[in-house]
Amino acid sequence: MLKNRILPAIAALGLVIAIVVAARTEHRSPPAQPIAQPAQAPFKSYIGGSGLVEASSNNINIGTSLPGIVRTVSVKVGDKVDAGDPLFAIDDRELRAELLVKQANLAKAKAAVEEARASLEDYRSQYALVRGATAGRAVSVDDIQKRRNAELLAGARLQSAVAAVAAAEAEVKSTQTSIDRLTVRAPIPSEVLQVNIRPGEYAQTGALATPLMILGNLDLLYIRVNIDENDAWRFRPLTKGVAYLRGNRDLKTEIAFVRVEPFVTPKVSLTGSSSERVDTRVLQVIYSFSRNALPAYVGQQMDVFIETSEVPVASATDVSTTKSEDSK
Predict the structure, then answer these.
(1) Which of 53, 40, 57, 48 is closest to 282 using CA atoms?
(2) Full-prediction pTM beyond 0.85?
(3) For burial by CB atoms within 10 Å, which of 14, 21, 39, 118 has the most?
(4) What is the end-to-end Cα distance of the chain in Å, rounded?
């Protein structure tokens, strides 16, 4: 009897719980509001694209032609440098020791030239004493010939010594050039954007995933805009554009057309890595704006809108009419 009463009570309780859960589930929370409103195009007809801020000189990845341990780093991030200013230097003690040896060899070669020149003068004077002698005199023809040959041999040795000096000077200059190459210098007037090397670290040669340093001229900033290949046909050079900072659509500036890079490339995700690609090809267009126009930084993404002219879309009737007229 008691069992028959408990089971209906449990069933009724489960039904009440189900009703409560269903009622709470139907209550929908309001959609989350975006932190920042997206930018809106200021043109009636436009092309939208993502842009990446870069230096007007392009971002210059600094490397070294000779590997080694970094001895000194002469700059820090934010420094402005002129062309030829030292950026960092690699340990040059081994090459400087080699330079001392080659300078000593050069001094030895120069001394050999003086020795060969003195020897030539000696043999030349000895031959001059018997040059006009005839066969009937005390000096034999054989002795005259020997003195003449000795003079010629001394002249050849002098020429060889002079050539040895030239070779030693070339070796000294080669080593001095290698020492100078161990000091990496700024190629153009620019600003230091990134420093990824410290004294005591080993600097490798070649193209590195993380450059040793990054420089760029920031007097004028460029925006590299990726235009989807489906919209590329709508783009026309010298058209106006507006760029917005991500996160604040009130920060915007007009941008000036610079150039089109006519090679359509696979789209690169705007993370700075050339290995992250998607299945889209894009036309890259370069625009510029003044550094003082926006608080933008190199590597920052921007929303770009480029004005286009409205192109009427031909209907199927217009296409068939055109074809029939062409056939006539």
Answers:
(1) 48
(2) no
(3) 39
(4) 99
